[in-house]
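User: Hi! I'm working on a homework problem where we have to compare a predicted structure to a textbook description. Could you give me the structure for the chain below?
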Amino acid sequence: MVNEPGKYPATDALITETPGVYLSILTADCSPVMIWSNEKPVIAAVHSGWQGSELNILGQTLQMVMDSFQVSPASLSIVIGPGLSQEHFEVGPEFEQKFQGVYLQKNSQNRHSNFNNNQFLLDTAVSTGVLKEQIEILPYCSFRDEHLFYSHRRDRGVTGRMMSVIGIKR
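Assistant: Happy to help. Predicted structure tokens:
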């Protein structure tokens, strides 16, 4: 929970109900997830690449928002992205142990797959009760849309970061 401005290093999810406190997430291929309630003034920002998704950071954050602030999942709205699209999210065979096959598209040229992190995040939100029509996945890809975004993969680790911000007006 964030009650005042500041830096929160090594944190992949932030939640606040404090007007005037803006939450930000830095990404360069991972998906930023912005969450707000239409019921009460509460917001959250989540940073979720494959590791965050494997640890269910979004599901845990949504549950904490609902439990701590007594908001219904139907009152929540979510925006996901921009991050890596499935087309550019190549992963190794070990991912078959981490994620269900529906999120992995086999690559016919090698033993790798392409991971659909955004679909995983959408399904995670829906499984907690968030209405699908209140979730938007932005159509951009941090790797493909190089004129718009930084990409850790595309630029081989030598790149900037994008900032996604959400806040409650005073």
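For your comparison, note the following. The first helix runs from residue 50 to 54. The chain has one domain: 13-86+117-167. Good luck with the assignment!
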